[in-house]
Amino acid sequence: MYEFISALYKETPFCYISVLDKSFSQGAIPTCTTSEMGKYCDINASEYRCYSTSWAFYTSEYDIEAIKHDYRSIGVDFIFSPFTLLANFFKDKIESTLSIFVLVQSNALSFSVFDHGELLYGEHLSMQHEREGDTLLIDSSMDEDLDAGMMDGIDLEDIAIEDDSSGFEDFGTIEDLDSGDSIDEFSETVVLNEVVQEKEEQSSSGGFNEDYQRFVLLQGALNTFYKDPKYKSQFVENIYIADSIGVSSDLKNYLEEEIFLTVFIRKIDLGASLCDMAKAEA
Questions:
Q1: CA distances from 240 to 29, 205, 220, 262 (A)
Q2: How far apart are CA 205 and CA 169, in angstroms?
Q3: CA-to-CA distance for 109 and 101, rounded, in angstroms?
Q4: For 203-255, what is each residue's pLDDT tens digit?
């Protein structure tokens, strides 16, 4: 990434580095009045910005500094809240309906309720799990080769590797199918079919578990919105989902059958959306 961005800097000075805030200590609150913000979050330890005169988004000061530290070798121009991205993506619906709006990422959900442009509730929900293969380990013996070669002196210890699993699938391993010379051709075909079928079932089960977890998180956030007296709760019938990872139909079925919501799912390209927001800011 460093080499790619450095090459662009050589072509033009007009480069803007934009990132999406993925910290879990963030959210959105239905006020932009400083004296009222304390009811919803610890404003003293947070950075916040007003999106409009009626609502704001926030994140912790620590997380902002952590992002700046991660990108210190190239700099960062814009750190966007997922709630601003969500508000821009569904701008037409937010201004005209009472609905739930959700941004789905691989490890988080940004949940909000808007009533004709007015934010009623916002919460950032974490997918508390770590899938096998998410952690990238670099052997220390490789550091010297990388430093002396293509990294051109960049200290790998200064580069923070963040999990960004959107667009990538978990890599499986191929079972050892060689069970000896006594297996005939027909038996080998049967074994191969069984292995393929087993892997398909495992993949389906993994997607099922993740979508069910997303459903549980969304259901919990909706219950908080209905029951917490701090919020102006209203009965909501529609949910609009900005899907950046490709959720299965299971999530839609859960929301429709368990809590009787009308579900609308729209694909979102996070990279393209961030570029559009950066252009608007610049």
A1: 19, 25, 17, 9
A2: 14
A3: 10
A4: 444 556 899 999 999 999 999 999 999 999 999 999 999 999 999 999 999 99
What token pair was written down for 212? 């069910």
Q: Give the tokens for residue 140.
A: 């220390």
Beta pairing, strands 238-243 & 262-267: parallel
DSSP at 45:
G
Strand 56-60, strand 46-50: pairing: antiparallel
- Looking only at Cα atoms, what is the longest distance across the chain? 79
* First and final C-alpha spacing in the chain: 22
Contact 116, 97 (CB under 8 A): yes
Residue with tokens 């330890």: 45
Contact 40, 229 (CB under 8 A): no
Which tokens is 142 given?
Answer: 């490789």
Residues 6+ positions from 161 with CB-CB distance below 8 Å = 136
The DSSP H or E segment spanning 108 is strand 108-115
State whether residue 73 is helix, strand or coil.
coil
Residue with tokens 């004296």: 35
Contact partners, residue 97, CB within 8 Å, separation at least 6: 114, 116, 238
Token readout for 124 is: 């950032």
**Vertex 44 angle, CA 40 and 46, to 5°:** 75
**pTM of this prediction?**
0.72
Identify residue 57 by its one-letter amino acid code.
F
Q: How many Cα atoms occupy the beta-carbon half-sphere of 15 within 13 Å?
A: 14
pLDDT tens sequence across 109-142: 999 999 999 999 999 999 874 444 343 333 333 3
Q: Which two tokens stand for residue 102?
A: 């959700």
